[in-house]
Amino acid sequence: MNRSRKAIALLGASAVVLTCLAAPTVIDSAASAGELNLLTWVSYAEPSFTQAWQDRTGCKLNPTLVGSNDEIIAKIAAGDTTYDLVTPSVDTTPILWKMGVIQPLDTSRLEHFGTIYEKMRMNKGVTLEDGTTIAQPNAWGSIPYMYRTDTVPDAPTSVDIIFDPKYEGKITLWDDKSQIYIIARYLFGTDVDVYDLSDDQLAAVRDKLIEQKKLVRTYWSNAGDHINVMASGEAWISNTWGGYQVTELQKKGIPVVEYLPVEKADERARPRLRVPVPELHWRPRGAMRDVAVLGLLGRERRGRQGLHERGRVQGAVPGRSRLPR
User: Fold this and answer.
1) Is a pLDDT exceeding 60 seen at residue 114?
2) Are strands 5-10 and 171-174 parallel, antiparallel or unpaired?
3) What burial class does residue 35 get, using C-beta atoms within 10 Å of its C-beta: 0-12 exposed, 13-18 middle, 19+ buried?
4) pTM reported for the whole predicted model
5) 5 pairs with which residues across the strands?
6) Which CATH class is domain 145-264?
7) Pair 88, 320: CB distance under 8 Å
8) What sign results for the dihedral spanned by CA atoms 104, 273, 88, 79?
C-alpha cells in the first residue's frame, strides 16, 4: 500500500479523503498512539458526549473547530494533512467527490445503513445518480429563523423580515451558501429545485442578497459569534442552527424564539464519507467502532456504524446538507 497517501475520514460525512504527501505522514503514529485529530464543527466534539467514548476506548480526541464548509474545503485543498476525521455537510460532499479526494462507501459493511430514513439515504450528497454511495447520513437539524421578542413586537412568519428597512443594522446572517436556497424559494416559490437553478435564477438570487446586504450588521460563521451578537442586542433577527443557539441564549435569559418561515426551512444533515486508510491500526482495536458518535450533537439524530476490520479502518465517518422540508 502506498504510504505516501494520507487518509482523512470525514466525520459527519463519513468519507475518506486522500492527500498526496512527499513522505510518510504522522497520521500512522498518531493513530497507533490512540489519538484522533478532528476537523469538526463548533459544539460537535463537546466533552459532554465525547468524553465517555474516550474513556471507553482509550482513544484521545484532538478537535479543531470550524464554522463553515468553506473552511473545511480550504484546509483540505491546501493540503492540510493534520486530520484523521473531518465533518463536512452533505451539500459539500459532491464537491469533495468532484475534487477526487473521497471514495465510495461499501454499505454492506455498515450494519444499520439500510434502516436510515430513505430521503436522507438517497440524498444527492449521499447517493449519486449512478447508485454510488459516497456518504453515510448521521445527524440532522433545521436552519430556521430566530428573533428577539423584546425588540421585534410582531411575530414574523416569512423570510421577508430580513428585507424590512426598519430593521437595518439589526440583522445577522450565517455566512453560508444555504442562504441561496431560501432566497430562491422566496423569489420563485417553494417548489423550485434550489440545487438546479438556472443562470438567470442564480443571478436574481445574487442581486437580491446584494440588495439586502446593506441591512445586515454582521455575518456570523460560528455559533459563539452568533450567540454573542444576539445576546448583546446588536442584532435582533437571524437565521440559526435549529435548537442550539436559541437554547444557549435562553439560558442567558435572552428572549428569543425560533420560527419556520413560510418559504420553508432548510435542513442540515451530517453524513460521513469513506476514506481508505493505509495501515491505520487503532489501539484498542475496537476504538474505531464508535467513531460515528463523535460528530453528533447530543440533540440530533445519532447513528453508529462498525468501521473496523482486521485492525484497519475500512469504514466511513459524517457531513451536512440543507434539504427543503
Assistant:
1) yes
2) unpaired
3) middle
4) 0.61
5) 20
6) alpha beta
7) yes
8) negative
Same CATH fold, 145-264 and 5-140+268-313? yes
The C-alpha cell at 258 is: 425560533
pLDDT of residue 234 exceeding 90, the answer is yes
Lowest mean pLDDT among 6-15, 212-221, 310-319: 310-319
**According to the model, what pLDDT value does residue 176 have?**
84
CA angle (36 as vertex; 289, 243 as ends), nearest 5: 80
Rounded to whole angstroms, the Cα distance separating 173 from 221 reads 9
Of the chain, the percentage scoring pLDDT greater than 70 comes to 71
Nearest one of 216, 245, 213 to 148, comparing CA atoms: 245
Length of the chain: 325
Segments making up each domain of the chain, as ranges: 5-140+268-313, 145-264
Rounded CA separation 94/3 (Å): 26
| 15 phi and psi angles, rounded to 5 deg | -120, 165
Residue in this structure with the C-alpha cell 449512478, named with its chain if needed = 130
**Are residues 119 and 104 in contact, defined by beta-carbon separation less than 8 angstroms?**
no
Beta pairing class for 237-239 and 145-148: antiparallel
Rounded Cα–Cα distance for residues 86 and 268 (Å): 16
Of the spans 64-68, 163-167, 283-287, which averages the highest pLDDT?
Answer: 163-167
Alpha-carbon 246 to chain mean position: 18
* pLDDT recorded at residue 104: 82
Query: Which stretches of the chain are assigned E, i.e. beta strand?
Result: 5-10, 16-20, 35-41, 60-66, 85-86, 139-143, 145-148, 171-174, 216-220, 237-239, 256-259, 266-270, 308-309, 312-313
Q: pLDDT at position 305, please?
A: 29
Nearest CA-CA partner of 229 in 242, 243, 216: 216
Architecture of domain 5-140+268-313: 3-Layer(aba) Sandwich (3.40)
Rounded-to-integer distance, Cα 229 and Cα 123, Å: 34
Residues 6+ apart with CB under 8 A from 171: 162, 215, 216, 217, 235, 236, 237, 238
